[in-house]
Amino acid sequence: MVIEEAKVRSNGRLAQGIYTMELTAPVIASSVQPGQFVNTLISEGWFPLLRRPMSVASRSDDRIGLIYKVVGAGTQAMASWTPGQQVNLLGPLGNGWTVDEGTFPVLVGGGVGIAPISFLHEELKDHGIEHHLLMGARDGSEHYLQHAPEENITLTTDNGTVGIKGTAIDGLKVVLNLLSSNSVTIFGCGPPPMLVALKLFVNDQGLPCQLATEEIMGCGFGICQGCSVELKTDVDHHQPSYRQRFKLACIDGPVFWAHELA
Questions:
Q1: Distances (CA, A) of 2 to 50, 89, 138, 221, 229
Q2: Nearest CA to 158 among 177, 179, 175, 143?
Q3: Each residue's pLDDT tens digit, 174-193
Q4: Which of 2, 20, 51, 135 could form an S-S bond across to 39 if both were Cys, CB 3.0 to 4.6 Å?
């Protein structure tokens, strides 16, 4: 983990309400792994006070890419940044995904969760690892990829304007029915309702699944304790210690096995 003064190379709209930014950050780019994030200082002043955790969406030479959705004051400020702007980053933070040999990865992303899924997708492509990418959105304007099942890319939309009509979970059922592999691992990231639905589905089906949680954070390295994630435990809730019952998304995650989570 380092503090690095990065510099914006490009920043622009990727799809409806979704932006992509590329920054020169050679130190972080040299070690960041898919699933990890950076904590971004929005302003040198008092507002917004807290850094914003941003999953890294890509890495290339001395650069990293971010994909973000404008949802508040912090991301609105980011959308106004222009090339050359200096940005204070803390990172890389978190644990990242673990891809085991012998299983077929199915990547499921939606909403603000497309960044870490995109990074993993690019890394698997670079290493020649066959996989399937599934992206969900409310409508076609939020997608920036092409629906191409023959190329292992499936899109879903709630209103059916692009790809399969329905949620990402509906799309996942279709993809799983078409796969010939008996050994599949799911990798998911998205808004909380999608993660809850995905966790229920994979646990019901007995499928191994890693979920990248999106939690509100302060420090990003375990001091503020603001990003606690409750674990599933059989231990009497009146007896376990705090660390037996909770983990922190910033230092223990943000990636967790679905079966570990309450």
A1: 17, 8, 37, 11, 25
A2: 143
A3: 999 999 877 999 999 999 89
A4: 51
